[in-house]
């Protein structure tokens, strides 16, 4: 998992706090160490190792890796599977990851470290620890994902609404300044589309038509797939463009100015703490 994109949260399984690392999609990683503390609070790592000694566990881990990891080392996997069950056999998460190039387990060091596993694997481990405890984990994990989805939808809608409000200011400026009276609605639409694409090129580097050609399987337009940073900048340059239109600047002049402003604002927003807080809610 890319460390820079991880968000740490937690779930509460009947009183036990369990850490969750998320990248904003369904590929969350859940702490096996925290799950193990339910049974062995003093030595949770030993419980994880005991689980990994089982042949059935190794077969499950190997199957998961073969499904999702093209770099998984099958020869090393077969060796572990053959050794499983022997009294002398010991397998740690670190050893499994190092020898097989597994991606389903992650071993993190430090005070807040431990062993994390993809949620598919974490639920399997929870079943081994306690079937009842697994149900508590799943229930609160579902609550966490529902809250994340609701928060993401709320923040996205707020920014889309803000963008639409500014777009209204933008189109009103076009109507008052660039569109003469009695021009047909068809020709008005052409002018609006041209101005919208001026903003598209200034911010995204391509027109709506160019974006659709590059993304034939996606619905909507590139604004529907914009980042939070881009939506904020879009809102800003829409207002600026409305003022530039009133001032009588040509399209070429406005495009150059808006592009320069968009680049500068995007650079500024990348390190903005307030925007990072908004992103953490998504």
How do the SSEs run, as a string of H and E? EEEHHHHHEEHHHHHHH
Helix percentage range: 55-70%
Order of strands across the widest beta sheet?
1-2-3-5-4
The biggest beta sheet is recorded as: 5 strands, antiparallel
Supply the number of helical segments: 12
- Distance N terminus to C terminus? 18 Å
The number of domains is: 2
Runs in which pLDDT lies below 50 for 5 or more consecutive residues are none
- Residues in β-strands, percent: 5-15%
Average per-residue pLDDT, rounded, comes to: 79
Shape: elongated
Outline of the structure:
This protein has 12 helices and 5 strands. With 282 residues, it is of the alpha+beta class.
Describe the structure.
β2 and β3 form a beta hairpin. A five-stranded antiparallel β-sheet has the order 1-2-3-5-4. It folds into two domains: 3-129, no CATH class; 148-280, no CATH class. The model has no long low-confidence stretch (mean pLDDT 79). With 282 residues, the protein is of the alpha+beta class. The protein is 63% helix and 9% strand. It starts with 6 loop residues before the first strand and ends with a helix. α3 (55-68) runs antiparallel to α4 and α10 packs antiparallel against α11. It has twelve helices and five strands. It is elongated and about 85 Å long.
């Amino acid at each position: 998992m890319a460390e820079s994109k991880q968000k740490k949260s937690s779930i509460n399984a009947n009183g036990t706090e369990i850490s969750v690392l998320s990248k904003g999609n369904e590929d969350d990683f859940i702490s096996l160490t925290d799950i193990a503390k339910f049974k062995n609070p003093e030595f949770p790592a030993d419980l994880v190792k005991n689980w990994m000694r089982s042949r059935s566990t190794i077969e499950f881990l190997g199957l998961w890796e073969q499904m999702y990891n093209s770099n998984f080392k099958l020869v090393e996997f077969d060796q572990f599977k053959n050794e499983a069950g022997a009294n002398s056999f010991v397998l740690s998460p670190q050893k499994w990851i190092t020898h097989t190039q597994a991606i389903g387990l992650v071993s993190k060091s430090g005070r807040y470290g431990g062993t994390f596993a993809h949620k598919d694997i974490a639920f399997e481990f929870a079943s081994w620890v306690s079937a009842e405890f697994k149900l508590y984990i799943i229930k609160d994990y579902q609550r966490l994902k529902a809250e994340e989805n609701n928060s993401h939808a709320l923040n996205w809608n707020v920014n889309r609404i803000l963008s639409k409000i500014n777009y209204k200011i933008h189109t009103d400026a076009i109507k008052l300044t660039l569109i003469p009276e009695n021009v047909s609605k068809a020709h008005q639409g052409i002018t609006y589309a041209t101005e919208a694409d001026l903003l598209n090129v200034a911010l995204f580097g391509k027109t709506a038509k160019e974006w659709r050609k590059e993304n034939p399987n996606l619905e909507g337009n590139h604004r529907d797939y914009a980042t939070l940073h881009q939506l904020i900048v879009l809102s800003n340059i829409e207002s600026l463009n409305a003022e530039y239109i009133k001032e009588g600047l040509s399209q070429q002049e406005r495009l150059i100015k808006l592009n320069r402003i968009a680049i500068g604002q995007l650079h500024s927003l990348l390190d903005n703490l307030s925007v990072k807080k908004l992103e953490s809610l998504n």
